[in-house]
Design a protein that fits this description.
By secondary structure, this protein is α+β, with helices and mostly antiparallel strands. It contains two helices and four strands, in the order βαβββα. A four-stranded mixed sheet has the order 1-2-3-4, with helices on one face.
C-alpha cells in the first residue's frame, strides 16, 4: 500500500509549487484507472490515509534553479528508509514532473517488494 506523498521546496521550506497536490492527483487518477480495468497492474495500491502500518510513504524535497527542478525522494515504511532516488523536471512542465515522480515511485516499490 502507498500513502500520500509529502514534498516541499528545500529552499522555501514549504511546497510553493504545489507539487504534492499534483503528485497526489496523478496517483488518484492512475489508481482509479487501474481499478476500472486499465491495462497494466500497479505494484502498490494508493490509500488516501495519513497513517497505515506497513504502508510505504514517499517523502522528499525539491529545489529550483531557473527552469530546472530537482526532486529528491525517499520511500519509507514503518520508519525505515527503503529506497532513495532523484528526478529532474522543468518548472514549465509540473504535470510531467508529477507523472515521472509517480512512475519512479511505482518502479521503486516493485523493486523493494
Amino acid at each position: 500500500m502507498l500513502l500520500p506523498p509529502v514534498l516541499q521546496n528545500a529552499d522555501e521550506l514549504f511546497d510553493n509549487l504545489d507539487l504534492t497536490s499534483r503528485v497526489r492527483k496523478h496517483l488518484r487518477e492512475v489508481s482509479y484507472a487501474s481499478l476500472r480495468g486499465a491495462p497494466g497492474r500497479l505494484p502498490a495500491v494508493y490509500v488516501d490515509a495519513e497513517q497505515l502500518a506497513g504502508a510505504v510513504r514517499p517523502s522528499g524535497n525539491y529545489s529550483v534553479q531557473g527552469n530546472a527542478i530537482t526532486a529528491n525522494l525517499v520511500l519509507v515504511r514503518d520508519g525505515n528508509r527503503l529506497a532513495q532516488f532523484q528526478i529532474q523536471g522543468a518548472l514549465n512542465d509540473l504535470e510531467g514532473l508529477a507523472s515521472r515522480i509517480i512512475d519512479r515511485i511505482f518502479q521503486a516499490v516493485s523493486e523493494i517488494k
